[in-house]
């Protein structure tokens, strides 16, 4: 495991050291250790919601080696999350209706995890997730129907 992990979040660079204690340091552009290329096992994670707005020089090979799309939750991802957060439950009566809802409603893995963490009881957590997805579907449908109502008047 690497000693230093760096990441950019909310326009600030932090260094996380992970030997015995977790320490968070504020970015210092004059720190020669941070910018030295002699240090092994350094990981820098950049996040953005708008890759198209980044300077193309940042995206050239050798600058950012791995690009990971953090997309909306799909049925197969949901099953993996449910197994992880609900003590390895691999089948449940609500899996099929929830998977169907994921084909109709967009939800991020973080939103799904938040719902699954409500309870270790699979019935409670999955019913909560189903309710969450149904409310997202109702909001989406009401937003889609609003312009049509305005056009009719």
UniProtKB/TrEMBL annotation:
Keywords: ATP-binding, Nucleotide-binding. The keyword Nucleotide-binding applies. Residues 41-71 form the ATPase AAA-type core domain. It comes from the Eukaryota. InterPro entries: At3g28540-like_C (IPR058017), ATPase_AAA_core (IPR003959), ATPase_AAA_CS (IPR003960), Mitochondrial_chaperone_BCS1 (IPR050747), P-loop_NTPase (IPR027417). Belongs to the AAA ATPase family. This is ATPase AAA-type core domain-containing protein. It comes from Brassica oleracea var. oleracea.
């Amino acid at each position: 495991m690497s000693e230093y992990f760096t990441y950019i979040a909310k326009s600030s660079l932090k260094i996380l050291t992970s030997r015995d204690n977790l320490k968070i340091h504020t970015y210092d552009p004059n720190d020669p250790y941070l910018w030295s290329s002699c240090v092994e096992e350094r990981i820098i994670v950049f996040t953005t919601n708008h890759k198209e707005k980044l300077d193309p020089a940042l995206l050239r090979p050798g600058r950012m080696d791995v690009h990971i799309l953090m997309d909306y939750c799909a049925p197969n991802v949901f099953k993996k999350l449910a197994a992880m957060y609900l003590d390895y439950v691999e089948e449940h009566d609500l899996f099929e209706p929830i998977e169907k809802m994921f084909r109709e409603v967009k939800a991020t893995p973080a939103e799904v995890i938040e719902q699954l963490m409500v309870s270790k009881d699979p019935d409670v957590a999955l019913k909560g997730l189903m309710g969450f997805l149904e409310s997202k579907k109702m909001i989406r449908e009401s937003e889609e129907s609003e312009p049509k109502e305005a056009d009719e008047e």
